[in-house]
Structure formats: structure tokens, C-alpha cells
Amino acid sequence: MQALPAKAMVKNMEKSIQMERLTLGVCYYPEHWPESMWEEDLDRMMAAGITVCRVAEFAWSKFERTEGVFTFDFFDRFLDLAEKKGMKVIFCTPTATPPAWLTEKYPEVLNALRDGTLVRHGMRCHCSHTSPVFLRLCARVVEEIAAHYGKHPAIIGWQIDNEINCETNLYHSESDSLAFREYLKGKFGTLERLNEAMGTVFWNQEYTDWNEIFVARPTLADSPNPHLLLEQKKFVSESAIAFFKLQADILKKYRKPGDFITTNGMFGHLDYRELNRRALDFITYDSYPNFFFAMGTETNGNASPTGKLKDRANGLSLSRVRSVSPNFGIMEQQSGGGGWQTRLTQPAPLPGQLRLWAYQSIAHGADFISFFRWRTCTVGTEIYWNGILSWDNRDSRQLEEVKQMQGEIQGLSGLTGSKYRAKVAVGYHYQSEWDGEGDVFHGPLSGPSVMNWFYACQISHTPMDLLCLDEEVTLETLLDYELLVLPHIALLPDSLCDLLEAYVSQGGRVIFGARTGFKDEFGRCPMRPTPGAAARLVGGSVRDYTLVPEDRAAGITLFGEEVSMPLLHEVLEEADGEVLARYHGTAYYDGSPAVLRKRTGKGEALYFGAAFSEEAALVLLRYAGLTEACGEVLTLPPEIEYAPREKAGKTFRFLLNYTGKPQSFRCEKPLTDLLTGEPHNGDSILPPFGVMVLEE
Ligand code: GAL
Q1: Looking at ligand 1, which atom is closest to the CA of residue 264?
Q2: Residue 101 C-alpha to ligand 1 middle, in angstroms?
Q3: pLDDT in tens, 129-141
Q4: Does residue 272 sit within a domain?
Q5: Which residue range forms the structural domain that includes residue 553?
Q6: Distance CA 445, CA 450 (A)
């Protein structure tokens, strides 16, 4: 992907939602209900403090029921009513669900499975974003919608499409292969260069004509050329961004000043930072914390039997959203149980959890919360995705929780625009992740390691960010953090190592995990010692490595504590670095270096030759002196999440209790709960699923 010239780059960090005050919204589908219900629905929403509706993301046929014949009266009536009631509207482009006439008349727009079978009308997201016909028809309907509704006073912003790449993030239509060839031609210029970069010399895969190249097709053992598959994912991301840019450019012509353009994510094979830079004003996210429970096997409200904090693992996703837009919106906040008729069986949120989960999003940087959805649909695949109200339309406990929030958020008037404050960042790198999906020698390390850092940070009250390691990162960004963890960035660019060296020289601390930097940008293994350019920073390199079955994983003693070394072991060799720990167990490399450290300037870099267990992360956090970030003000049990948001010298300290039991904590200073106005000093109790936002 072509890097943007540094000067022209609009930074993601400047692309945040701008809300005057914390705002509640809801996803509403006027087309699902008799028109006679709209007025009462809007009145009930307003009475519960819901002042924004998101509409129309699946409603193409309301605008173009017949090809080329556009009608607007349906949403004219809805928007006018909304305006009358004081309800603001986020209007969506309906391109995730093209109508039946379209896909029947132009089957070339359809996405296909890898074997070429077309995916047909009847679900959603079934078109390919590279089909010229689809792009033309999308551009036309968006232009018609934007031209007609763009100046409507009820509208405050636009959502493009809906959850792109959510049902699939791979595309195999003919148009994809054609567009992929153009992408490759543009990138590599000649077949010779393409063949070289894609390693096609292996197994005689050389291409002698561009027309021989396709997006991945069925192969034996389901193992197409890995370098080309990685390139295909970069191409999927580029195609999606171009699709958004096409729509955003149209919307920009017609929107009112101040109206925003966003989309809801986040899904695979899409570089959301690049998307945000090129096409959006900020990102929104759809937050469904229940997806993080082992579905159907776990009881909400009890600590999970594994001790893993599944009930709050969603916070990790929210941290990733924050790495795109520091302040974001939640376009869909789970308000009921799931799911479809056929899958996604999720328990209903327990009393208190709707509110808790909404505050979890807010604690992590959301300034807008729109619940999914106002009322459960009575038809279709999602008749079990429960809304605030059920089919019976009676007032519900969920509605009560929304109303409770309506009152409480009045106390959070200064919150919007405040930033989640972390001193620890865990890096991620899109290309390494995409490569890792198809590489069992490094891909499976990242998920557990990142989760374990997250768990360790959570239970030790160490606020943590995720940091995208792309070309936008500057030394200044890095210096915001005292500790950077780069778990297993296999495709670590050399240029980033220069930046990391400057960061360390100025006092930063970096910890690399196994398999760092052993591949180049195409996923090939250059003939040099691992971790590549990072070797000079850590003062040593990898001599040998092996995957390890669970029963053969060795341990180490690190800073006096026993630490397990899961999944993969690298046998290290020091150069000008020092050995901090050696393997002990029963392996042939017992006694060999497992952790290295090298000091440069005012800082240091560590290399950790395995995946990270939770205890390893905890030991390293303690070593860095970063745990219990709120220690002077609060003493908290591990069951409570601590999340600080800061603005203009003021700190909003969020406390969230994910358990169904009361939790005791201590205020070391007099504090006030902004949600209730109540003072707290000394010993205090956070009720089951309780939330407080404490201020000094
Ligand atoms: C989201 C999607 C919604 C709805 C919801 C519940 O992913 O945007 O349209 O499907 O999940 O499944």
C-alpha cells in the first residue's frame, strides 16, 4: 500500500467524534413497524433520554424499489416527524443490502465462495466491492439519497454501509480477480517483480501472464500461495476503502456543515486507520460484550471458571477502536440477548448489565451510545436479537436502565472530549495479523499474548492502550507511553525500529515477544538473524526456535518469579545485551537464554522468547513499576476495572464491577461519584454490576 506523504497525512488522533455532551441514541427501523407506531416510539425514546436515531442502513428498496425510479416519501415522513419531536437522525447509506431486482438482473455484482459459487440474495453483505456495476449502482443510490435528504435539519450525520466485512472478509467474484490484477500491476509493474515478491519460484508457481492470476481459488490442503494471499487481504482492505471513499465524496457534496460521516466496525481485512484517514470523520463501533462469553457455557455474573475476565474482554476491542478515534461513538450497544434463528445464542444481559456495558464503552472513550435496537424485530433472521423493548412493546427493565442513565449522565457534562489515559501500549500491525491468519507458526501466538497483557493490566489496574504500528506513528506518539509491548509483530518494518531506537534512547521501554521481525512485508523470511532490525535494540538474536506442546513448555525465573513460557520457544543468544532469564525444564536448550535486555540511552529494550502468559505480563508490568495506576487515590480489588479519562487537568475515574456481587474498595482521598453526586471516603462498596465515576 502506498504510504501517504507525511505532510499530507490527516492524523487519526485528530479524527474523533465531536459531541457537546454525552448522548444516547438507538437503532430504529421505521420500515419494520406500522407507520402509526412511529410517533409513540419517538415519544417514548425522548422520554427515556434517547435523542438520536440511526436509520435506513438496510432500506434500499424504500428509495429504489424499481431500477432507476427513486422515491423519498417514506423517509421524508419519518424525518419530518423526527424534526417535529426534536429527535436527531443518523442517516445510513443502504449498500449492505442491495435489492433482489439488482442481484437478479446483474448477477456479476455477487460475491462468491472460494470455489466460485455465487452467494445469493436472502442474507446481507453479498456483493463484491470491486464490481463496476455494483459501484455504479451504489454511487447512484447514494447520490440520490444525499441530494434529497442532505439538508434535512433532523440529520446530524451519515453512516456509510453497515459493518463492512462482517459476514465475510474475503471476496472471490470474477470482478475481484480482475481488480486484483490491476492492483498487482499498479503495485509491482512487471510480472518479474511480482513473481519475485510472491515467491512463485516455489512449487513452480511463476506467472507468465497477468490473466493467470486470480484471487485465491480452491487448492489442495486449502493452502494457496501465502504471499499472494497476504496481498489479497491488503487488496480487500484497499477495495473497501475505495468503496467508502466513493460514497464519502458524494455525501460531502450534499451534507450540511457540521454533519459527520462515519461507519460502524470493526471487522477483518480492513485497515481502519487508513479508512478513517481517507474517508471518515471518525469511527464508530458495535459493542456486544456477550460475544466474549463462551456462548451458552458460561453464566453471566459469576467470575468465569477459567479466571479469565471474559465479561470485560470487550474492553480490548474498545481499546482498538480508541486507536483509530480517541473519542468514538457506539453505533450499536448491546441491550438484549442474542441472536439469530440459526446461531449466536446469547443469554440476556442480567439486570444492570445493559447500563454497565454502556458505561464500559464510555469509560474507554465513547461519547455517544446508540443502543441496538429499539424493539426486537418480529420477522426475519434476527427475531431473537432483543432490543430495549421486546415484541410485546411493554416497558421493560432495559428501558428502566436507559432512563437511569438519562439522569446520571447529566453529572458527566464535562466528560466529552476527555481521553482515556494509559501509560502502557500494546502494539498491533495489520499486515502481521493478516499474515498470521495463514501462518500457524506465529499467528496463534498473538491472540493469547495480547489477551494475557490485557488481563494482567485489568487485574492490576494498569490502563492499557492498543497502538497501531503504521506509518502515522511518530516519536511523539510513542513518548506518550512508558512501556510499549510488541507481542509478536512478525512483519515489523525496519523503519519502525529506527523510531523505537529513538524512543528507547529518550527513556522509553520496549518489550518484544517471540517471532518479532522474522518476515518481510510480503511474508517472506529474509536471510538474516531474527528479530531483524530489532536485533541491535535488544542486543542479541534468535539461534533456534520450536513450537512447544503444552506438556513440554519450559519455564523461566524472571525477576525472582516463576513464569511459564507457552506455545513457542526461541533459544536466544546475547551479543551486547544481557541475559535476564534462561529456560529450565526438560528441553535440550535448558540453560539457554530466554529473555534478553539491552539499555540504550535513557531506556531499554527486552526480548522475550515465547508467547506471554498472564503471569509473565504481570511480572513485567511490576518490573516497569506501572501497576495500580490509581494507587494514591483508590485501592481496588481485581474484580473492579479502573478506567481513567482525562481532560484539562481533570480526571474522571471510572470504576466498573463486572460481577454479580458487591465489591469493596477504598478511597484514599475524599471523592465524589458524578453519577449520583454522593461523596465517598475510606471504605466503600460498588454494588453488583455497579458503576461509579469518581472525581477528586
Ligand atoms: C450487528 C449488525 C446489526 C445486527 C446486530 C445483531 O453486527 O450491524 O445489523 O445484525 O449485529 O446481530
Answers
A1: 8
A2: 24
A3: 999 999 999 999 9
A4: yes
A5: 424-623
A6: 9
